[in-house]
Write a structure and sequence with these properties.
This protein has 333 residues and is of the alpha+beta class. The chain has 15 helices and twelve strands. The strands form four sheets. It has a three-stranded antiparallel β-sheet. Strands 4-5-6 form a three-stranded mixed β-sheet. Strand 7 and strand 8 form a beta hairpin. Helix 6 crosses helix 7, helix 7 runs antiparallel to helix 8 and helix 9 runs antiparallel to helix 10. The longest helix is centred in the middle third of the chain and has 16 residues. The chain is elongated, with a radius of gyration of 30 Å. The N and C termini lie far apart (99 Å).
């Protein structure tokens, strides 16, 4: 009769205390949106027969080459992205517009999933695979456990495909408070290496840094100088607009009383300040409800398209305004 030695008893006890292979794989799948790869199975000690039995029993569902979903895990777009990343192989990450949507930089979910890898990949896949010569900058904190390119790398990739650099920078600034100087350093370190998208994004960043250096008073002086040079009337400054009951709504820097129009001059600090952005939007909505028209200009409008600003101011000041519920006063509220 077999009598285990003390060492054998310890080994048997250790084996009994270990979770089963299916439990270990389920734990792995829980970190991957319910997905497993053949490599995960092999690491747990399983083989192709192990996988085939579970596919036949309905425990596993093939969802991509080499990738299986545990029964009941639920099919979602995010799971499809994870399946594409896992199927593409080690080091692959969600990128381009897929990453932009996951990171909240764009609002519309892309039609096709995009993945980046440094490996050569010739097999056909129902998603787009971008081959990179160098590993992309990867987000430290993956979204929903899915590895993605970093915010800055995603900006570069999307701008390279024609996306508006300004809108993407706005989204990155509001959602992640990404500093322009941080983006500038990242881009300058990679500029001149033939990477599409870097130059266009760097131009936008440098332009915004120049905006940041311009004070609101300088911006106002530029606006008034443009009006004077084109023979247009100057607005009233520091006017407190009030409701019909006398309560204040807003103090505005540029008010054309005869036209019932308010002009806001927005520097980059306004653009990146969450609180001020929300407050100004609320005030703008209330002014509109009172029958006032509002216009917003940035330094880019004043420098790049001054003729558009001049035409708009000329048009609005040529139309008489009937004041039905707005009171005004100069000075503090």
């Amino acid at each position: 009769m077999y009598s285990p030695t003390p060492d054998n008893r310890r080994e048997l006890g250790s084996q009994r205390s270990q979770p089963s292979r299916d439990v270990r794989l389920a734990q792995t799948a829980a970190t991957q949106l319910g997905l497993l790869t053949r490599a995960d199975v092999a690491q747990a000690g399983g083989d192709s027969h192990f996988v085939a039995r579970r596919v036949r029993s309905g425990m596993y569902e093939p969802v991509a080459p080499g990738v299986f979903a545990l029964a009941g895990s639920g099919a979602t777009w995010a799971r499809s992205v994870m399946a594409a990343v896992l199927s593409t192989g080690t080091g692959a990450v969600a990128s381009h517009y897929t990453a932009a949507f996951m990171l909240g930089l764009i609002e519309t979910r892309p039609d096709q999933i995009e993945v980046s890898t440094t490996k050569s990949f010739t097999a056909d896949r129902p998603w787009i695979i971008h081959r990179r010569h160098n590993a992309p900058d990867v987000a430290r904190a993956s979204r929903r456990a899915i590895p993605t390119t970093s915010v800055i790398q995603t900006l570069i990739d999307c701008v390279a495909y024609g996306s508006d650099a300004g809108k993407l920078l706005d989204a990155a600034g509001r959602r992640y408070r990404t500093k322009l100087t941080t983006i500038q350093r990242f881009l300058e370190a990679r500029a001149g290496k033939g990477r599409t998208g870097i130059r266009a994004l760097l131009d936008e960043v440098e332009c915004r840094l120049r905006w940041e250096a311009i004070s609101e008073s300088e911006l106002e002086s530029m606006f008034h100088r443009l009006l004077r040079d084109n023979g247009l009337p100057l607005p009233e400054s520091q006017v407190v607009l009030r409701r019909s009951d006398g309560s204040p709504v807003s103090r505005v820097d540029n008010y054309f009383a005869s036209a019932g129009a308010v002009v806001y001059l927005d520097g980059y600090r306004w653009h990146s300040d969450h609180g001020r952005f929300h407050k100004d939007r609320s005030q703008q909505n209330e002014l509109a409800s009172m029958g006032l028209r509002t216009f917003r200009y940035t330094i880019r409008h004043l420098e790049d398209t001054p003729e558009v600003v001049v035409d708009q101011i000329r048009d609005l000041t040529s139309i008489p305004y009937c004041n039905t519920g707005v009171r005004q006063a100069s000075g503090a509220a």
